[in-house]
Amino acid sequence: MIWAKTDAGRAEIQARSLVKDRAQRNLLLVIDGKRTAEKLLADVMGITADDFGRLEGLGLIAPVAPPAPVAPPAPPAA
Prior knowledge:
This protein is mainly alpha-helical. It has four helices and two strands, in the order βααααβ.
């Protein structure tokens, strides 16, 4: 799953009022809407899958909808 910061998440980066845990704060900082949760779990020391749920519960991150599949081109009419 890919996560992105919400407006509240971007505001939290400046305010530093909701997230006090260092690992969760680091996770919030690196969530970019491009990297998967699995990639972030491998790259950010000290975080767990539960940290994504905590940030989501606070309204700071939200899942990014996967791109719609591209339909193959229609065969040429004969």
